[in-house]
């Protein structure tokens, strides 16, 4: 193996720094079939994401999915793509910028660099680590922006981080934050975003918290994600002073024919109007930034499903994105993890 070494380090005048690595899932470089094929190949080749025997999955991925799915996925991305690029990447850069400003104000400009790395696509985790070590950062707090730990997200981020650092001769100190759904900063910002919508449009018949789904088999194999999602719902319901039956947890974005965590968000939205629930607020607390799964799947497709089934009011509450209270919570979380 070819190791990466830092040969320009000044032993006489060292100024080693602390740094922050923000991570998120990632995005294709462009809303085109070619870019989607590259992105999906990397994403769907991750065994943390797809736990099917590798040889069988190779056949399915290369002969069934990649020849066809990139074209349909590209059309969906084209509907949410902005002049600045992918919504997820645009927001992630805004989060990085605001967090960097907070550290510059507190510790001095450039004293605590904040880098951004995506698990799949660009900028990569490898390039972000290189960016930090090039600035003499030797103490890194890694923050995957997934509030609720899941093996397919935070666990996979750890894998990518380890794959990068095992190539280094001088491995930096690392603190890895594997989740933060019970932290005061996160819950305060989440509750505030919901309360602001209630103040604006009134109390709905039901508040839905829709989390990204995973196969049920992951739960049975010991992944705590399902429990953390329900814990998030309970904690934010308590903060809002609401009754348990006013807020429900659902799971979205299922893929394939296997059973996933239930209840499914799309089936719930279709059924609620018949149950007399015609005015809803819906938020996606597992997403730290709005992306295809929130903008298109929930605010577009989900809205259409609910209204077509007889719903009357559908209010989507944006992800926390670069809200100031969200950035405050992330800043507090990171600084508490500095040595």
UniProtKB/TrEMBL annotation:
User: SUPFAM superfamilies annotated for this entry?
Assistant: Chelatase
Q: Which InterPro entries match?
A: Ferrochelatase, Ferrochelatase_C, Ferrochelatase_N
Provide the binding site for Fe(2+): 212, 293
State the pathway, as annotated in the record.
Porphyrin-containing compound metabolism; protoheme biosynthesis; protoheme from protoporphyrin-IX: step 1/1
Give this protein's Gene Ontology molecular function annotations.
Answer: ferrochelatase activity; metal ion binding
Instruction: From the UniProt record, list the reaction(s) this protein catalyses.
Output: Fe-coproporphyrin III + 2 H(+) = coproporphyrin III + Fe(2+); heme b + 2 H(+) = protoporphyrin IX + Fe(2+)
Report keywords, A-Z: Cytoplasm, Heme biosynthesis, Iron, Lyase, Metal-binding, Porphyrin biosynthesis
Localization (cell): Cytoplasm
The Swiss-Prot or TrEMBL record describes its family as follows: Belongs to the ferrochelatase family.
Record-given protein name:
Ferrochelatase
- Lineage of the species this protein comes from: Bacteria, Pseudomonadati, Pseudomonadota, Gammaproteobacteria, Oceanospirillales
Gene name in the database record: hemH
């Amino acid at each position: 193996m070819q190791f990466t070494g830092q040969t320009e380090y000044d032993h006489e005048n060292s100024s080693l720094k602390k740094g922050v690595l923000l991570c998120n899932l990632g995005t294709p470089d462009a809303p085109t079939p070619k870019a989607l094929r590259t992105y999906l190949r990397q994403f769907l080749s991750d065994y943390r994401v797809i736990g099917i025997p590798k040889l069988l999955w190779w056949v399915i991925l290369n002969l069934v999915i990649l020849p066809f799915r990139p074209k349909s996925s590209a059309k969906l991305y084209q509907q949410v793509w902005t002049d600045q690029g992918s919504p997820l990447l645009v927001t992630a850069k805004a989060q990085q910028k605001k967090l960097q400003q907070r550290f510059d104000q507190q510790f001095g400009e450039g004293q605590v660099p904040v880098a951004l790395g995506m698990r799949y696509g660009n900028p990569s985790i490898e390039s972000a680590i290189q960016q930090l070590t090039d600035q003499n950062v030797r103490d890194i707090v890694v923050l995957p922006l997934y509030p609720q730990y899941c093996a397919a997200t935070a666990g996979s981020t750890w894998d990518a981080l380890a794959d990068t650092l095992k190539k280094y001769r001088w491995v930096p100190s690392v603190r890895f934050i594997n989740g933060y759904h019970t932290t005061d900063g996160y819950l305060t910002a989440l509750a505030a975003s919901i309360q602001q919508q209630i103040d604006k449009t009134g109390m709905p018949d039901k508040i839905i918290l829709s989390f990204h789904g995973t196969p049920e088999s992951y739960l049975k194999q010991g992944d705590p994600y399902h429990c953390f999602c329900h814990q998030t719902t309970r904690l934010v319901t308590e903060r809002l002073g609401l009754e348990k039956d006013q807020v429900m947890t659902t799971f979205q974005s299922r893929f394939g024919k296997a059973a996933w965590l239930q209840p499914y968000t799309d089936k719930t939205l279709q059924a609620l109007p018949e149950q007399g629930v015609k005015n809803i607020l819906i938020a996606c607390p597992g997403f730290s930034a709005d992306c295809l799964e929130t903008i298109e799947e929930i605010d577009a497709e989900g809205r259409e499903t609910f209204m077509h089934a007889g719903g009357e009011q559908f209010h989507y509450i944006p992800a926390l994105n670069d809200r100031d209270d969200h950035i405050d919570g992330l800043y507090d979380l990171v600084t508490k993890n500095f040595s």
